[in-house]
Amino acid sequence: MRTKVVIVGAGPAGLLLGRLLDTHGIDNVILERRSPDYVLGRIRAGVLERGTVELLERSGVAERLHREGLVHNGVELSFDGHRQRLDFLALVGKTVTVYGQTEVTHDLMDARAASHATTVYEAENVTLHGFDSASPSVRYEKGGVGHEIACDFIAGCDGFHGASRASVPDKALSTFERVYPFGWLGVLVEKPPVSDELIYANHERGFALCSMRSPTRSRYYVQVSTDEHVEAWSDERFWDELRNRLDAETAGRLQTGASMEKSIAPLRSFVAEPMRFGSLFLAGDAAHIVPPTGAKGLNLAAHDVGLLADALIEFYEERSQAGIDAYSARALERVWNAERFSWWMTSILHRLPETDAFGRRIQKAELDNLRLSRGAASAFAESYTGAIAAS
Ligand code: FAD
Ligand code: DHB
Question: Where is the FAD-binding domain (predicted)?
């Protein structure tokens, strides 16, 4: 079998890239290790920047997003029970859209199914070959039978633990990493959100986040140490801990119920450079991870594949290598900007090992600075909404 682009991974990055290439008639095959239900069962991101929404519009999959997505003009930050609001619309004229990664994935899957492009789910033992030569290919097994696809390019969209980055020789790769000694315990519940906007809370007991998926479905997180197990967290224990970390008024309004999903996500900052090796391109979590604070992961993945799709379209339609050659440097500039913001937001909102009395005063001063300085608030709003990415 032969195609132009083999895409490894059918998460949001792989599916969006496939869709953007499809709309320009560029043949591609997606290989995904898991089943469609498994992919849809992962509850992850919830906040989309304008640039991500625009890419979904360009892909023709934004109809439901515009119907059901919730446009948010700002967020609230809380420190030991005192809330302050950051008004993105007033500060930088931008908003974000709350629409779950599950829904984005669903919409992209539906569009792909309708286009009859090839997606192989439950593809096992995916291996990448010859991406430093003129004849790259990808091999995989399905139901015990081996297959090989010859191609022009390989897009590694297979997440942090995927095969793509792992197949690059160590000496060709530089990696940069921070692992945080805590994770986020998340709960999804069929109850209306406690507030119209997201609340990011810094409390002595640790970070908490009140988010949502719809007017009737909420998503909450509390910071827990990395050695915690989800089984140790009954719903009741989770709600008690969350209430403890919120201001009294918000805690009093919180509607609780049986959790529909509960999981612990570790926090990590990671970047692999470069993002291109011959005809292999890395995109999304395969190349970089941000801690979730600030909601950048999915948006970065979308930004990467937007650049990559444009580069490949330029290659096939104009026979120009320029976009391909610029891909890694252009993507990494935005990646490092988001790494900076996510790391900073994590450090001002969480209880870290170095959060002694001095560290805590500095965290409070950082939050006060966002209240006192319009410049600081605008810089925050630019980063959070992705206004910076538009350059
Ligand atoms: P993935 O979603 O990881 O997809 C990779 C795909 O590749 C998977 O389907 C996997 O099964 C497949 N795969 C892996 N290995 C192989 C292989 N060997 N062969 C074939 N297929 C393979 N981001 C935001 O922007 N906003 C948020 O609000 C936000 N909140 C988050 C909250 C939590 C709790 C977490 C954990 C993450 C959050 N993120 C958020 C991050 C976001 O979910 C990720 O950045 C996003 O999923 C990256 O998409 P991706 O397609 O690059 O990778
Ligand atoms: C969500 C996740 C985030 O990391 C964030 O900063 C905001 C919202 C969410 O899952 O809803």
Answer: 2-342
Ligand 2 centroid–CA 200 distance in Å is 9
Distance 159 CA to ligand 1 centre (A): 6
Q: Are 254 and 243 in contact (CB under 8 A)?
A: yes
- Atom 30, ligand 1: residue with shortest CA distance: 45
Pocket test for ligand 1, best of 7, 158, 303 (most atoms within 8 A of CB): 158
Contacts of 32 (CB under 8 A, 6+ apart): 9, 10, 14, 39, 119, 120, 121, 122, 123
Query: Bridge-partner residues for 132, per DSSP?
Result: none
Contact 286, 34 (CB under 8 A): no
Pocket of ligand 1 contains residue 304 by CB under 6 Å: no
Single out the catalytic residue among 99, 200, 221, 327. 200
Domain boundaries, the chain: 5-68+98-177+268-350
Q: Which fold has domain 5-68+98-177+268-350?
A: FAD/NAD(P)-binding domain (3.50.50)
Give yes or no for a contact between 44 and 191, defined as CB atoms under 8 angstroms apart.
no
CA of residue 82 to ligand 1 center, whole Å:
33
